[in-house]
Specification:
The chain is mainly alpha-helical. It has helices at 4-18, 23-30, 34-41, 49-59, 63-81, 87-90, 110-115. It is elongated, with a radius of gyration of 25 Å. Residues 12-66 form the HTH cro/C1-type domain.
Length: 116
């Protein structure tokens, strides 16, 4: 099973290491304990959105960039694990007939056409 917290931790660690920063520096800037940040990086703890935001701010990286990298790695991990797309996702979604779909534009009456 692929653990999201592990992928997130790997991405955060790489971001920190690319910058040549220590756990101590980032934990101080994010105002989180060094031990907790270490556990997040190792995938042992799940970061709340608030904590993730603080870590991203401390690393001066957008959370969307971190999440995009996590998403890319998740896709690769799923492919490597041979996880298939569920058939239900490949089935077409039924669309109701046009006459059953309510119109957002009010129908004009013959009176409206004459008045115009």
């Amino acid at each position: 099973m692929i653990l999201l917290r592990r992928l997130l931790g790997d991405v955060l660690r790489r971001q920190r290491q690319r910058q040549g920063r220590t756990l101590r520096e980032v934990s101080a800037a994010a105002r989180v304990s060094l031990g907790y940040l270490s556990e997040v990086e190792r995938g042992q703890k799940e970061a709340s959105s608030e904590l993730l935001s603080a870590i991203c701010d401390a690393l001066d990286v957008r959370m969307s960039e971190v999440m995009r990298e996590v998403s890319d790695e998740l896709s690769l991990a799923e492919l490597a694990a041979g996880e298939a797309v569920r058939p239900a996702l490949l089935e077409p979604v039924p669309v109701p007939p046009a006459e059953r779909v309510p119109s957002l534009v009010p129908k004009s009456s013959a009176m409206d056409v004459v008045a115009a």
